[in-house]
């Protein structure tokens, strides 16, 4: 009986063997994990006519943003679950330390009454906005065509949840100190009716029904997040410092560290997409649709602050535009 030819043993997973080097921990645990991309016509290996299969065929596989190998995407920070937890454990210890130290010093009792009212209308309702960002990044996580993209969106989702919990914690602290200002009670009414929030509210509610995975990525990562971060985290954080609210200024600064990491992987994914002919036109088409809503959100938020708010709105719009321009987009 003839013998079978000897099989050359692999020293790593077959899909990583072509790199001719030992794969990193990031590559081992992050790449090639989506089994539902193996058969584009039947993503879930069930009846191909079930609604979920059709959803993925239409809103992921048939997206106008194309690439021959989305699995080639790599997170520039090479973030994995283990290192994310190490990093953010330190971040949360820092934030909780801020809360404890400023509480011990009686920080809230020293705030001016006008600023306390501003926090009730301009800050604590932001938890609705952060929750919407959480939902948006979770949708990108669910629909992304590569596990390395999904992982980045997963960590962004967790970061947005952290921003939400920070805001909820501060809302409770402010309610304890100022029980007659409506903290923890009036945020929904303010979010739904106060004119300063209606621009961002329209943007985010429309963004949550942008079902194409790449359009969802575009509106959240290239429009909504830059607009919100430049407005709420950066410029409103500066305004907080100017009004003696050092705690909020330091908190938003810490949250911007997360936002900067989100922008790094967003930039890397856009750079990869632009290597394919036609994708620049697709992305710019979506930006033409969504950017006016993002900029309207910035303008409406700052409108009640008068001349100072107008200047902040201009700076926030310019910073958002620069982020996109640096990626080669209009």
Question: Brief description of this entry?
Answer:
The chain has twelve helices and no strands.
Structure in words:
It is a single chain. The protein is mainly alpha-helical and 330 residues long. The protein is 67% helix and 0% strand. The protein has a single domain (70-325), classed as Ribonucleotide Reductase, subunit A. The chain has helices spanning 25-30, 51-61, 81-104, 113-122, 126-143, 147-177, 187-193, 195-207, 213-242, 246-273, 279-302, 306-325. The chain starts with 24 loop residues before the first helix and ends in a 5-residue tail after the last helix. The mean pLDDT is 94.
**What count of domains describes the coordinates?**
1
Number of strands: 0
Quick check: average pLDDT? 94
Rg to the nearest angstrom? 23 Å
Quaternary structure classification: single chain
CATH hierarchy, class: Mainly Alpha
The amount of helix comes to 55-70%
Instruction: Briefly note the structural class of the backbone.
Output: mainly alpha
The main β sheet shows up as: none
Number of helices, counting only DSSP H or I runs of 4 residues or more: 12
CATH architecture: Orthogonal Bundle
Which descriptors would you attach to this protein?
330 residues; mainly alpha; Ribonucleotide Reductase, subunit A; globular
Topology:
Blueprint: H1 25-30, H2 51-61, H3 81-104, H4 113-122, H5 126-143, H6 147-177, H7 187-193, H8 195-207, H9 213-242, H10 246-273, H11 279-302, H12 306-325
Helix pairs in contact: 3-10, 5-6, 5-8, 5-9, 6-10, 7-8, 8-9, 8-11, 9-10, 9-11, 9-12, 11-12
């Amino acid at each position: 009986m003839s013998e079978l030819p000897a099989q050359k043993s692999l020293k790593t997973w077959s899909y990583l063997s072509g790199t001719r080097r030992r794969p990193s921990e990031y590559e081992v645990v992050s790449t090639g994990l989506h089994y539902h991309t193996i058969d584009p016509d039947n993503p879930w290996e069930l009846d191909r006519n079930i609604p979920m299969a059709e959803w993925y065929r239409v809103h992921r596989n048939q997206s106008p943003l194309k690439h021959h190998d989305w699995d080639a995407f790599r997170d520039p920070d090479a973030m994995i679950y283990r290192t994310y937890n190490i990093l953010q454990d330190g971040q949360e210890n820092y934030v909780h330390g801020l809360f404890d130290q400023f509480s011990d010093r009686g920080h809230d009792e020293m705030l001016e009454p006008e600023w306390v009212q501003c926090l009730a209308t301009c800050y604590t309702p932001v938890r609705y906005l952060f929750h919407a960002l959480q939902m948006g990044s979770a949708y990108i996580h669910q629909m992304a065509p590569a596990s390395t993209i999904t992982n980045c969106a997963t960590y962004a989702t967790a970061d947005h949840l952290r921003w939400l919990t920070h805001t909820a914690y501060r809302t409770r602290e402010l309610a304890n100190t100022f029980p007659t200002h409506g903290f923890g009670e009036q945020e929904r009414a303010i979010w739904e009716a106060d004119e300063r929030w209606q621009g961002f509210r329209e943007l985010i509610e429309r963004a949550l029904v942008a079902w194409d995975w790449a359009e969802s990525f575009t509106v959240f990562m290239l429009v909504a997040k830059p607009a919100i971060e430049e407005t709420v985290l950066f410029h409103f954080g500066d305004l907080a410092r100017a009004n003696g609210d050092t705690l909020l200024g330091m908190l938003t600064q810490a949250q911007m560290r997360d936002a900067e990491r989100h922008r790094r992987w967003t930039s890397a994914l856009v750079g990869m997409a632009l290597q394919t002919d036609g994708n620049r036109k697709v992305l710019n088409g979506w930006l033409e649709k969504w950017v006016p809503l993002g900029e309207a959100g910035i303008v409406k938020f700052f409108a009640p602050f008068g001349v100072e708010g107008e200047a902040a709105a201009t700076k926030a719009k310019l910073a958002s535009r620069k982020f996109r321009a640096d990626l080669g987009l209009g």
